[in-house]
Design brief:
This protein is an alpha/beta fold and 622 residues long. It folds into two domains: 209 residues, no CATH class; 319 residues, 3-Layer(aba) Sandwich (Alkaline Phosphatase, subunit A). The protein contains 22 helices and 20 strands. The strands form six sheets. It has an eight-stranded mixed β-sheet with strand order 7-6-10-1-11-12-4-13. It is globular, with a radius of gyration of 26 Å. Bound molecules: (2R)-2,3-dihydroxypropyl phosphate (GP9) and manganese (II) ion (MN). The site of (2R)-2,3-dihydroxypropyl phosphate (GP9) has 9 residues, from helix 13. Manganese (II) ion binds next to helix 13. It comes from Fervidibacillus halotolerans.
Length: 622
């Protein structure tokens, strides 16, 4: 105690230790960070300290009168940043990035979901701030701030600098090229701490902003060579089978593939879809590839066959870019392109992005009659959504591409008692328990819609495509998922759980389950081939799912990937067939190739490179 009072550095060190301990506890209780060995645990422990020493140390340069205020403010602001990440993590299983913070268009609608993730007991996350405030203000005599000499400040910062390098050095050994392979935010946070991570994110933000200004057409040369080399011949039997037909596409909110053909409490979760896949092409080895932009990322993949971004939602950050979208190509081929979604038109910045993508019409919240009676949670219930959309669908010019985005099966999966066709599951997670009931409701909604399409004579004239937009049950619920599957969920299982159903119904066709490996990146070339459109000059990363030669891996936005043989996740290779960990001698080369592909796609978006490309001639514009 005496020493604490005597040392000049005490206030700085005390403030640092308080926040340091809090941050480490937070790692353990609020974030689900995988630790593989003792060294990683040690890095995790020391990772927050360098930042805290640097910022609290700045108080040495401040007039003694204001030092208490400064120390308190830094502690409060830092704690708020940490708390924002805690709440964000509960909902998204991810850390905040700068672009995500500016997605204010979404805030209103996100309220219910985010609020449901805040608890009164969260006040404990501010215990250290309160302790610091009490000491600084209630016991002003506890420390007498003293002035520091030049030498003292130097010694302090040299020591701090050596801690920074020590931390970075250890991180570099554990994770080479940590800062250049920043697709994996968990990796970053656990190696450099949540505060340095925030600073690094600010740096990335300014770097990507500069990238567009410096871009030229030459940047496209290498990328074009790459995408062209990946292209595959379409399936000859199916090429053009849907020529001139309407495309009705249904985005199934948060629907993972594991619900298909499974039961809960002895009842089918998706009775309608289970029947519907018997008369459709059903892809049971198909993955979502979304990042922080969730539904909007799935839409981006669909329209562009480019990867969404590693940070933020591309619908927000790059809505002004030039794109060669599916919508535009379809329009050139006489299609009318519309999107139906009963949510605020600015959510995910859709109203802006749809313009860049070339949609003819967006039926959004203002086009629907939403009442207390027909809505729940995020808005209009799916059954009513489809019912009201029908009146519009009947009016639009044919052939059309109509995208319907469902909503009821959205976190936190709330449903009126009377809409529950099955009872909730019993596990340790209410989220998972309720999830089954809202998936079941969604299934019913799709059924009513298909029935209406038949009644209206639209069914036989349309290709119907359905897919899950992204996961609904995050890793946070692994324990409960384990109770459902009656097994422990491994990192390999987590990858498997990212499968979403893809169903393609073509009039007059027999049912077939196709286990070709694929992801949302493949949707655009697949749809175009079914319609008999082959745009050789298009730039895309996907391949036709029906092509007999399809061989591209499924790449997740965070660098995880799946091929027919190997699955890579959390730094380990697994055998895709057995799920057993395996040794891959040239593993690093695989990882490099995957990162190259993600980088190429990112370069197109950050540099807005398609503005230098004439898609009709396939030439680069100087
Ligand atoms: C919002 C809806 C849901 O309009 O698409 O968005 P999500 O949270 O799933 O990305
Ligand atoms: Mn969604």
């Amino acid at each position: 105690m005496k020493l604490l009072k005597q040392s000049k550095f005490s206030p700085i060190l005390f403030a640092t230790v308080l926040l340091w301990v809090k941050t480490y506890i937070t790692y353990k209780v609020a974030f689900n960070i995988t630790i593989d060995n003792k060294m990683q645990e040690f890095i995790l422990l020391i990772s927050p300290v360098s930042f805290l020493l640097i910022v609290f140390g700045l108080s040495m340069f401040i007039n003694e009168k204001y030092r208490n205020k400064y120390l308190f403010s830094v502690s409060l602001i830092t704690s708020l940043i940490l708390y924002a990440n805690i709440v964000f993590y509960r909902f998204f299983n991810d850390f905040i990035t700068i672009p995500v913070m500016f997605q204010t268009g979404n805030f209103h609608d996100l309220d219910i979901s985010v609020m449901s993730e805040m608890n009164l007991t969260d006040i404990f996350y501010f215990t250290d701030v309160i302790i610091l405030a009490i000491i600084l203000y209630k016991k002003p005599k506890f420390w007498k701030h003293q002035s520091f000499s030049k030498v003292e400040r130097r010694v302090y910062y040299l020591t701090t600098a050596s801690i920074v390098f020590f931390n970075l050095g250890l991180a570099e050994i554990q994770r080479p090229e940590l800062l250049t392979r920043t697709f994996d935010r968990e990796m970053l946070v656990k190696n450099i701490g949540p505060y340095n991570y925030t600073l690094y994110d600010i740096y990335l933000q300014s770097k990507t902003s500069a990238q567009k200004a410096l871009a030229t057409g030459d940047d496209l040369v290498e990328i074009l060579n790459y995408t062209r080399s990946m292209d595959k011949e379409p399936n000859q039997d199916l090429f053009g089978i849907g020529k001139g037909k309407n495309i009705i596409l249904i985005s199934l909110e948060s629907t993972q593939n594991f619900v298909i053909n499974r039961t809960v409490n002895g009842q089918e979760i998706t009775p309608f879809l289970n029947d519907f896949i018997k008369e459709s092409y059903y892809f049971d080895n198909f993955y979502h590839q979304t990042g922080q932009g969730k539904t909007s990322d799935s839409e981006f993949l669909l329209d562009n066959s480019l990867y969404p971004l590693g940070r933020g939602a591309v619908f927000f950050t790059h809505a002004g870019n030039e794109y060669i979208s599916l919508a535009k190509i379809l329009k050139e081929n006489n299609y009318y392109v519309a999107s139906f979604h009963a949510n605020n038109k600015a959510f995910w910045n859709r109203n802006m992005m749809y313009q860049s993508l070339g949609y003819d019409r967006f039926y959004s919240l203002e086009d629907y009659d939403v009442t207390e009676e027909n809505s729940i949670g995020w808005g209009l219930k799916d059954i009513h959504f489809f019912k009201q959309s029908m009146d519009y669908l009947k009016e639009i010019p044919k052939p059309y591409f109509a995208k319907f985005i469902t909503l009821t099966n959205h976190h936190p999966f709330i449903l009126d008692e009377k809409d529950m066709y099955i009872q909730p599951f019993h596990s340790s997670s209410d989220i998972l328990n309720r999830y089954f009931t809202t998936v079941r409701y969604e299934d019913e909604a799709v059924k009513t819609f298909i029935e209406r399409l038949k009644e209206e004579g639209i069914y036989d004239d349309s290709i119907i495509i359905m897919y899950g937009d992204h996961y609904g049950i995050s890793e946070k619920h692994n324990e409960a998922l384990g109770e459902y599957f009656e097994k422990e969920i491994t990192p390999f299982d987590v990858v498997e759980l990212q499968k979403v159903p893809l169903i393609i119904h073509i009039p007059g066709q027999k049912g077939e389950t196709i286990s070709t490996l694929g992801g949302q990146i493949d949707l655009k070339p697949t749809i175009l081939h079914l319609l008999g459109i082959e745009k050789k000059t298009d730039i895309h990363f996907g391949q036709d799912l029906f092509s007999p030669n399809k061989d591209n891996p499924v790449i997740f936005r965070d660098g995880r990937f799946v091929t027919d043989k190997i699955t890579y996740t959390t730094g380990t290779f697994y055998d895709t067939k057995t799920g057993e960990p395996i040794d891959v001698p040239n593993g690093d080369q695989y990882i490099q190739k995957i990162l190259y592909e993600l980088n190429y796609s990112d370069q197109i978006i950050y540099g807005d490179l398609l503005r230098f490309y004439d898609v009709n001639t396939g030439r680069i514009i100087e």
